[in-house]
């Protein structure tokens, strides 16, 4: 699975080829570089380690500084390893810039990021509960409550993973099958239509759609 590390810049809108106005999320991938490689001979698998975002040497700890110097790679703030085939890994060298043209207009991608933090939230906001519809017969201030949460004497407790109020957000989420509306190689930007998780300036990972790849594999297997 090839991919890129990027920064969610924000939203804008562009006109497509049919003249329709399309809302898009702008992802900046301009500083992606190869900082390491994994080989089957040494590591038992093949992968490429990408770095994103510039960082000063004095901010790095000794372990990070040793990693970059041993690989003779540029310093980068964020690192992510992407599994690729041995042939694809051989085509990359440490220090190579990975540009936005890895993806093409019209391609489907999966975007992974950390969702916005929403603090302590109730069940209607956190889990989309309908809420109590009883507003008469002595019921007061109960419209947004979760309802009963336990059982009877046996087992006499609330089961784990019950949907209840709690901390909402700050979770890793992958949104699948987003459409690439445009690619600007010079500026290092990818324009994606769909819900990209995270706040503005959040780090996201862009990969080719796993469902498209699985469909192709199934079609090939069927002959």
UniProtKB/TrEMBL annotation:
Phylogenetic lineage: Bacteria, Pseudomonadati, Myxococcota, Myxococcia, Myxococcales
Protein name: Large ribosomal subunit protein uL3
Gene3D superfamilies referenced in this protein's UniProt entry, alphabetically: 3.30.160.810, Translation factors (2.40.30.10)
Gene Ontology terms: biological process: translation
GO cellular component, one term: cytosolic large ribosomal subunit
Organism, scientific name: Pyxidicoccus fallax
Family membership noted in the UniProt record: Belongs to the universal ribosomal protein uL3 family.
PANTHER family: 50S RIBOSOMAL PROTEIN L3 (PTHR11229), LARGE RIBOSOMAL SUBUNIT PROTEIN UL3C (PTHR11229:SF16)
InterPro entries, alphabetized: Ribosomal_uL3, Ribosomal_uL3_bac/org-type, Ribosomal_uL3_CS, Transl_B-barrel_sf
Subunit structure: Part of the 50S ribosomal subunit. Forms a cluster with proteins L14 and L19.
Keyword Cell wall biogenesis/degradation tagged: no
Ranges where the record places region Disordered: 131-155
Pfam families associated with the record: Ribosomal_L3
Gene that this sequence comes from: rplC
């Amino acid at each position: 699975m090839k991919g890129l590390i990027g920064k969610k810049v924000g939203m804008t809108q562009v006109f497509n080829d049919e003249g329709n106005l399309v809302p898009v999320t702008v992802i900046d991938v301009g500083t992606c570089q190869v900082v390491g490689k994994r080989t089957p001979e040494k590591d038992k698998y093949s992968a490429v380690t990408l770095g994103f975002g510039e960082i000063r040497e004095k901010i790095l700890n000794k372990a990070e500084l040793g990693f970059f110097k041993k690989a003779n790679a540029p310093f980068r703030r964020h690192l992510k390893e992407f599994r690729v085939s041995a042939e694809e890994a051989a085509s990359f060298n440490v220090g190579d810039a990975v540009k936005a043209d890895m993806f093409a207009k019209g391609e489907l991608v999966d975007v992974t990021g950390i969702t916005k933090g929403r603090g302590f939230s109730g069940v209607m906001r956190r889990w989309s509960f309908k809420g109590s519809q009883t507003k008469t017969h002595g019921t007061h201030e109960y419209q947004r409550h979760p309802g009963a949460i336990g059982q009877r004497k046996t087992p006499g407790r609330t089961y784990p993973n019950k949907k209840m109020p709690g901390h909402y957000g700050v979770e890793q989420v992958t949104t699948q099958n987003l459409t690439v509306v445009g690619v600007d190689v010079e500026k290092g930007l990818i324009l994606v239509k769909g819900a990209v998780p995270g706040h503005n300036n959040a780090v996201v990972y862009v990969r080719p759609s796993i469902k498209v790849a699985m469909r192709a594999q199934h079609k090939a297997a069927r002959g």
